[in-house]
């Protein structure tokens, strides 16, 4: 079982990035997907979630209107499109796949996003 994030990096305020999370070793399409971030010196913050089919999405107020979560079950990949980035979006972003009925929860290793001029 593996979740591998990519797409992080440094970007100027107002810029955009797209994070990807490639899943393997399990049936990704049966799992809810989410993104959680952790800023330096702070606790984890839930960012966004998406249901198995991609038809329902949820966002933290801090990112609503700026971030878009999506998934491609054919490619076993979860995405987070981030726009209008702010310095306070600087954090390590982790993807998560969860199946509550099976009590299975998987995490990626994280990818660092730095928003700075």
- Relative strand content: over 45%
Tally of DSSP β-strands? 11
Distance between the termini: 37 Å
**Biggest β-sheet description:** 7 strands, mixed
- Poorly predicted runs are none
Compute the gyration radius: what is it?
13 Å
Shape: globular
What is the N-to-C order of secondary-structure elements (H for helix, E for strand)? EEEEEEEEEEE
Mean pLDDT: 97
Class inferred from helices and paired strands: mainly beta
What is the tally of helical segments?
0
Helix percentage? under 10%
Strand and helix map with partners:
Blueprint: E1 2-6, E2 9-11, E3 17-24, E4 32-38, E5 44-50, E6 57-59, E7 67-72, E8 77-82, E9 91-99, E10 104-107, E11 111-115
What would your notes on this structure say?
This protein is mostly beta strands and 117 residues long. It is 0% helix and 54% strand. The chain has strands at residues 2-6, 9-11, 17-24, 32-38, 44-50, 57-59, 67-72, 77-82, 91-99, 104-107, 111-115. Strands 2, 4, 5, 6, 9, 10 and 11 form a 7-stranded mixed sheet that branches. Strands 1-3-8-7 form a 4-stranded antiparallel sheet, with no helix packed on it. The mean pLDDT is 97.
């Amino acid at each position: 079982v593996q979740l591998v994030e990519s797409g992080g990096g440094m970007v100027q305020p107002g810029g955009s990035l797209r994070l990807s999370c490639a899943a393997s070793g399990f049936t990704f399409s049966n799992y809810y997907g989410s993104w959680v971030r952790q800023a330096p010196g702070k606790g984890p913050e839930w960012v966004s979630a998406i249901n198995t089919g991609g038809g329902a999405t949820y966002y933290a107020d801090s990112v609503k209107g700026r971030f878009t979560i999506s998934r491609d079950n054919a490619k076993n990949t979860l995405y987070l499109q981030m726009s209008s980035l702010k310095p306070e979006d600087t954090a390590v972003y982790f993807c998560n796949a969860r199946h509550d009925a099976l009590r299975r929860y998987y995490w990626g290793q994280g990818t660092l996003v730095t928003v700075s001029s």
